[in-house]
């Protein structure tokens, strides 16, 4: 495939992934209006264990298969890639069935561990029901991953991109439609509505698989032609082939699980800790849903944007490290870190400041009092999420990914040890602080390893970050002033309309000030690399 087609394919896949992520975030706003806080908590109780077992079932296969097939295709050995594809399909089918049986079987054991022995608001059988409903997706999704990886190995990104978007759209339509019918039309039980909502993952997988099968039959003739003309046949045994595949999947299977594992710690400890201080039952369910469902979706919006920009630099980091071009490597590492801080810091500070209007406009003013403080304290942790993702990717680029696994588990251990005592002392904020401390430890380890193996100096990055912090401080002052002035005329707690007005005006003021300072100082151009036309014009003015 030509370079231009490869770039085009990569852009298509990146765009599809971003669309899927955005859809996966915004559906929660109408979903909240249908099932509320308790429904959100019940949804999380099923989805967090499912996410972890799904990652274990797929084992990082899409990227690994893509790398394996691409490697042997480059050698003209299309036969070996096809062998892996057939063997991998059987492996993923078996893996999916195995983990489906595990999740389905342990659901009765998980339920009391999650919500405690006392059935306040949510019963054990309801948790078992939703966990078992979502477990069915494990049968299909792992097989989808290997088919996507196979197509990507041929530098064909379309099947993965289209199937991802179709899968997400089908899932969300079924989720919202089924929960609405049960709750608003039939006046049914909440756990039935949530059970159908999590079963939407299976519906989405069926549609996604259908798209992939369609692509397979459409391109089967061409793929078979390549197979016939295969130049050489590798002597790899099936065992050697699978071991090579797993070596590619490697440590980042675990790193991708960092946030779900932190959420799992909350899931197993939050209710017990809250019950121990006399605040269990419905209150604990509602607080948990704001923390790990609705609030989490909200704070992940800036994380996705920042990491998407930062991770684009990782392939170039790999190239520079391989060529021992440390001068260029240091510049790329610095830029990757600066991009994260430049995009995420103002977003999380801004979200913390407008947490009340954000909740009131996107969810409901009824939970502003309960959720405003949670979002205000949780939003800054998003910066840690982004930094951990990018620093772990840098470690992959310099072939030190094992340390990313060590750092992740070190932080997770700290989270596990601190979670219950901090929740007992500070309630929901304790869980947030335990997460923050855990990720801070992980990031510190990652940065230490980056410094050790690349001889990278952080002084320049720190100076840039201080300048960004000054601009963010100015932005914060402006946002606070706007909120104060608006409070004279309008109270965002009075209704969704008022919250939307306050949110839009305050965001516009804060973003406008930050962008103006960043562009006028040329900071945006230095960090983002003049990839946008308005930054190119600013550079010309500065040089003129």
UniProtKB/TrEMBL annotation:
Domain of life: Bacteria
Keyword terms of this UniProt record: Cell membrane, Membrane, Transmembrane, Transmembrane helix
GO cellular component: a single term: plasma membrane
Transmembrane segments: 12-35, 47-69, 89-107, 127-147, 168-186, 192-217, 245-265, 298-318, 339-365, 377-396, 403-423, 429-449, 470-492, 498-517
Major localization listed first in the record, in broad terms: membrane
Topology in membrane: Multi-pass membrane protein
Name of the protein in question: Polysaccharide biosynthesis protein
Lineage: Bacteria, Bacillati, Bacillota, Bacilli, Bacillales
């Amino acid at each position: 495939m030509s370079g231009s087609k490869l770039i085009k394919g990569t852009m298509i896949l990146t765009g599809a992934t971003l669309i899927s992520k955005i859809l996966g975030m915004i559906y929660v706003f109408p979903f909240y209006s249908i099932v509320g806080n308790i429904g959100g908590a019940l949804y999380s109780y099923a989805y967090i264990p499912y996410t972890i077992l799904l990652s274990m079932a797929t084992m990082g296969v899409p990227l690994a298969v893509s790398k394996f097939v691409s490697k042997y295709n480059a050698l003209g050995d299309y036969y070996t890639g096809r062998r892996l594809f057939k063997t991998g399909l059987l492996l993923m089918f078996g893996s999916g069935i195995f983990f489906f049986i595990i999740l389905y079987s342990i659901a009765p054991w998980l339920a009391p561990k999650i919500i405690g022995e006392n059935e306040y608001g949510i019963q054990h059988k309801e948790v078992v029901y939703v966990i078992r409903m979502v477990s069915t997706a494990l049968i299909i999704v792992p097989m989808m991953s290997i088919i996507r990886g196979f197509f990507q190995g041929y530098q064909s990104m379309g099947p993965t991109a289209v199937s991802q978007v179709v899968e997400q759209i089908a899932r969300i339509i079924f989720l919202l439609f089924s929960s609405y019918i049960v709750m608003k039309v039939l006046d049914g039980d909440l756990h039935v509505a949530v059970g159908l909502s999590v079963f939407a993952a299976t519906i989405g997988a069926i549609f996604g698989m259908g798209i992939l099968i369609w692509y397979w039959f459409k391109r089967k003739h061409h793929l078979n032609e390549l197979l016939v003309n295969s130049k050489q046949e590798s002597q790899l045994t099936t065992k050697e082939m699978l071991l090579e595949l797993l070596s590619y999947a490697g440590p980042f299977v675990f790193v991708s699980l960092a946030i779900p594992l932190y959420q799992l710690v909350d899931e197993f400890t939050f209710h017990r800790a809250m019950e121990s201080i006399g605040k269990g039952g419905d209150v604990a369910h509602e607080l948990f849903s704001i923390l790990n469902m609705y609030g989490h979706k909200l704070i992940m919006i800036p994380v996705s944007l920042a990491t998407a920009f930062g991770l684009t630099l990782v392939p170039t980091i790999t190239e520079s490290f391989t060529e021992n071009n440390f001068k260029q490597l240091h510049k790329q590492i610095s830029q990757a870190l600066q991009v994260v801080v430049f995009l995420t810091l103002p977003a999380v500070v801004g979200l913390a400041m407008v947490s009340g209007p954000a909740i009131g406009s996107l969810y409901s003013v009824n939970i502003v009092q309960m959720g405003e403080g949670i979002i205000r304290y949780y939003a800054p942790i998003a910066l840690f999420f982004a930094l951990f993702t990018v620093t772990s990717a840098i470690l992959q680029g310099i072939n030190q990914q094992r340390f990313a696994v060590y750092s992740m588990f070190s932080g997770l251990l700290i989270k596990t040890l601190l979670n219950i005592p901090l929740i007992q002392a500070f309630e929901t904020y304790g869980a947030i602080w335990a997460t923050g401390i855990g990720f801070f430890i992980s990031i510190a380890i990652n940065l230490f390893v980056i410094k050790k193996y690349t001889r990278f100096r952080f002084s320049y990055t720190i100076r840039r970050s201080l300048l960004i912090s000054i601009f963010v401080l100015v932005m914060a002052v402006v946002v606070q002033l706007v909120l104060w002035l608006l409070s004279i005329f309008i109270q965002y707690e009075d209704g969704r309309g008022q919250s939307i007005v306050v949110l839009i005006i305050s965001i516009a003021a804060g973003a406008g000030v930050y962008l103006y300072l960043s562009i006028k100082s040329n900071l945006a151009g230095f960090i983002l690399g003049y990839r946008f036309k308005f930054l190119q014009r600013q550079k010309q003015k500065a040089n003129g």
